[in-house]
Amino acid sequence: MDFEHVIFAFALTLFAGLSTGIGSILAFFTTRTNTKFLSLALGFSAGVMIYVSMIEIFQEAKLSLVTALGKTGGSWATVGAFFGGIFLIAIIDRFVPSFGNPHEMRRIEDIEKADPSLEGSKLMRLGLFTALAIAIHNFPEGIATITSAINNPSLGVVIAIAIAIHNIPEGIAVSIPIYFATGDRKKAFMLSFLSGLSEPIGALIGYVILMRFMNDIVFGALMAAVAGIMIFISLDELLPTAREYGEAHLSIYGLIAGMMVMAVSLLLFI
Fold this sequence. Notes:
Layout: H1 3-17, H2 20-29, H3 35-69, H4 71-94, H5 120-151, H6 153-182, H7 185-195, H8 198-210, H9 216-244, H10 248-268
Helix pairs in contact: 1-5, 1-6, 1-8, 2-6, 2-7, 3-4, 3-6, 3-9, 3-10, 4-9, 5-6, 5-7, 5-8, 5-9, 6-7, 9-10
């Protein structure tokens, strides 16, 4: 594999992770939350992830594992790795403190509704824990993005865009409490921006550790786990967040649109 290919895959993870900064920019330079846009965008992102996970990534994982282990062994290994990915991200989500959950929906208008009775230290702690929670969640997402991009660059681009969209509300979730606590927009933006760095860091660590052992079994198991991770993210994070913005039907329309766009883009590369 050539060096430029790896650099491109790593750049995709950097773009996806640092899109938390987009959430901060929206929070500080717009006056209202565009709930229709966010519901559509998050639903679209979920549609892309669900379709590509089940139709493309899972099937590629199964093909690789069946080639290495035979039809029966490879099929069982694919399913096991798929649910292993789901359990991994679920465990990570379980151990994130609930008060620092990055998926708690916040709106830009919240900046204008700061409760003066809240202590700055508590708000700062909330913001920092949210940033930490996002960093933890983004780590496996980085591995998922770089693995997909190395295997199929065009697929990696689509996944990176989908993950970038889902990182936008997370950037808002970090920025708002830190801004409440400090009154410093620049500090809130930087902490939100930096919380996304765990995505390329996860990608780098995953590449360094896993690529030296890469074979059909490792590749297949990793891709199946990536599919599981993205399914969990879609069902546990993206769709609930999209619906919490109060545009339930739009989130489903976005979901269907994401599936359709992903389906057509895959057909174009046959």
